[in-house]
Amino acid sequence: MPLDCALVKENRKIPPATVKRLPLYLQCLDQIDSDSIGISSKNLADLAKVNDAQVRRDLSYLGTLGTRGVGYDIKTLRNQLQLELGLVEGWSAVIVGVGNLGSALAHYGGFKDKGFGVVGLFDDDPKKINSQVAGLVVTPLSKMEEYCKKYNVAIGIIATPGEYAQGVADQLIDCGVRSILNFAPVLLKNVKDVQIRSVDLSQELQILSYYLDRPILKAVD
Amino acid sequence: MPLDCALVKENRKIPPATVKRLPLYLQCLDQIDSDSIGISSKNLADLAKVNDAQVRRDLSYLGTLGTRGVGYDIKTLRNQLQLELGLVEGWSAVIVGVGNLGSALAHYGGFKDKGFGVVGLFDDDPKKINSQVAGLVVTPLSKMEEYCKKYNVAIGIIATPGEYAQGVADQLIDCGVRSILNFAPVLLKNVKDVQIRSVDLSQELQILSYYLDRPILKAVD
DNA sequence: GAGTGTGAAAACATTCACAGCT
DNA sequence: AGCTGTGAATGTTTTCACACTC
What we know:
Two copies of one chain form a homodimer. By secondary structure, the first copy, chain A, is of the alpha/beta class. The first copy, chain A, folds into two domains: 3-84, Arc Repressor Mutant, subunit A, CATH 1.10.10.10; 91-204, 3-Layer(aba) Sandwich (Rossmann fold). Chain A is 40% helix and 15% strand. The first copy, chain A, has helices spanning 16-30, 41-48, 52-60, 74-85, 100-107, 110-113, 144-151, 162-174, 201-212, and strands at residues 38-39, 72-73, 92-96, 117-122, 132-133, 136-139, 155-158, 179-182, 195-198. In chain A, strand 7, helix 8 (162-174) and strand 8 (179-182) form a beta-alpha-beta unit. The relative contact order of chain A is 0.09. Chains A and B meet through helix 1, helix 5, helix 6 and helix 9 of A and helix 1, helix 5, helix 6 and helix 9 of B. Chain A binds a DNA duplex through helix 1 and helix 3.
């Protein structure tokens, strides 16, 4: 056995469909009154509005967390979910575009609660530069690289109008940001090793609209 | 054959996974320069970053829209997508909660472009009542029923803090609103015949976070 | 008895590959 | 030759159902 034999991180692969539900389970646990100590897959399934076998299958990817005949310990479960989602690393994020949406995101307490720290707000509008939003000073984009290096920023949140979004994305990637959450209604170019998630408000409304005139059909996320 | 024999609307059922991509295709078509007249499944697939067989399969649910050896006519395709998504009905929407997020939504032009009309803004904060946002007057929630009846509001958009969201949802449903787009970070109760879609900003970030420390894994929407 | 963990089945979604039309 | 529409193959996700543990 060679000396440099490393401790190989076990690479359990969690299916994408499951990953999407893990934050949901975490949210459900937050909504339980704090004196409860355990929860069954059926209980959790009812809260999350999914099938109970689904919950058990999903959680089984994280390891053997439950106790047969008893259920899951809430504290353990929460810790494991946070660990698996990478919420204990304390990732830093910046928000680019400090309009109404950017401000809303800057004020949104849910990020801090979940372990994300917003460390910078960027905008090139002279009227906004140097103003304070949610306790942070709005900074021009030219300072972004400096900031990203200094705080080791992992996540960039784009809340600019559509026409600036691709340029901002390119700049973020240049600054070493490997994950982007995009709220601008444009399709960003894929870049190797960079994760891009887009949330398009109007697309959500359009999906809703499809199910609007057909009350028989059932929507699925 | 009875006199009241009705013209039965053919009930082609479109798979949920396809419905989620239709707005994406529509967005891709919008990004094409206006002098193009046709497009192939391969072209559209590249824009939408999906497989070309996927595009053909998805579009085939809308009918036989393409021409073998040629491709799809952009205008026809756009019309058909809009028709299928119910974007030609001109649904009316109201926004409840006029904080930063609500204001962002009210200003967001993408809704009007896509056929949705925001006809009311509601908030119970005395400081906001009667102020103007995006050309609309902020109105107290007590007037909501009157408004919803008057404008036949189909869609309610919830942009309040989490603690008010369920109450607002109940009220919207009482007012006859059958579709809700919820931005508050809480799980709303399911109600029969009411479509609820939730967009949770912090959940999106958590999903991104999962893929952050594992550059090998590939994220899928 | 209650409730997990998981094979096996069923349902759903994607992709291949090609016949058939222009 | 170029490109659609779609059976068939493959891959993924959900659900059932039950052996097993507490």
